[in-house]
Amino acid sequence: xxxxxxxxxxxxxxTPTLHRRFTQAAGVSLVICYVEAVILGDxxxxxxxxxxxxxxxxxxxxLFLSALLVFVLRVAQLHCGDRSTxxxxxxxxxxxxxxxxxxxxxxxxFSALLFSEIYIWSVPKEANLNWVVHGRPWExxxxxxxxxYLRSLYLGLALLxxxxxxxxxxxxxxxxxxxxSAKTTNPVEQxxxxxxxxxxxxxxISLGSSLLGPIIYSLTxxxxxxxxSLACARFLRWDIPRTAELSYIPPYHITLIFRxxxxxxxxxxxxxxxxxxxxxxxxxxxxxxxxxxxxxxxDPNGSLINGLxxxxxxxxxxxxKPSPNxxxxxxxxSTAQPAPPGPKSLPNASR
Length: 351
Hints:
Elements: H1 10-40, H2 55-76, E1 79-80, H3 88-94, H4 99-122, E2 132-133, E3 142-143, H5 145-167, E4 172-173, H6 187-192, H7 195-235, H8 254-282, E5 287-288, E6 291-292, H9 300-308, H10 345-350
Parallel strand pairs: 1-4
Antiparallel strand pairs: 2-3, 5-6
């Protein structure tokens, strides 16, 4: 059977590398999900509170689904380099009328709703976060407003995260060519260095949301959230009267405020760690075992030129190093005849 001399496309080398880096970033996020699953779980049993094959493992997988939505969003809106805007506010204003804001808000809102159900399922019964409150035997069930407030808080954080995501352009991938003075470091070190600043920012937002959340909730969306929860409860066949009214005193207990603080911190950490891991591993140099990706190609220069001609930014080998198999600065389109060193082909090949 004759051996094919077809020049392999650059994306044939790049796609497996991106899949491997996506898996590495997802592994980092999975570790964060496991730590949060242990923190959010019931501590009554010392063994089953952390054992991966118990409820802790189930919570980890469910939390990973919430983080996976962030990875899906990043893949859908991935781009290389800075946006052509003068400021962060102008960047947000530019994407206010585009589909990006709908995709971003949908992913974060759905992730927040999924996290809220996982958190309410994970806490013990003493937290009083069930859908309904069972009264005395002769009383009908009442809708519990405590989980209604927490869900509203998580939705508010999702909208805030959407604004931050678009304003500060989290989808940006900065390669080594754009920052030539930066030295290549270990991805673990790149994950560790911004961690203190991220934790401070998350702590500030969590503290502010736990203190200002009850005020904003009472003045704005309390009745809307109550009616929406009543509709969901009737859809789930809960025996709740249709004319159930809000209580005069909102359920703002110190334990609920503390739980809103800790859970908000975990939710924001889940989002920020997923964004950070994806950015760090995707921005690594296009190398395989210390060699360029096209090192194993039968025509390295032809594969590199094919990548330079691609319309997609992520496929273009901007950070690719010259192939050691190249005999001269001018690229070759085939192994038999060298390409003429025209004035236009040489600068394009050297990029």
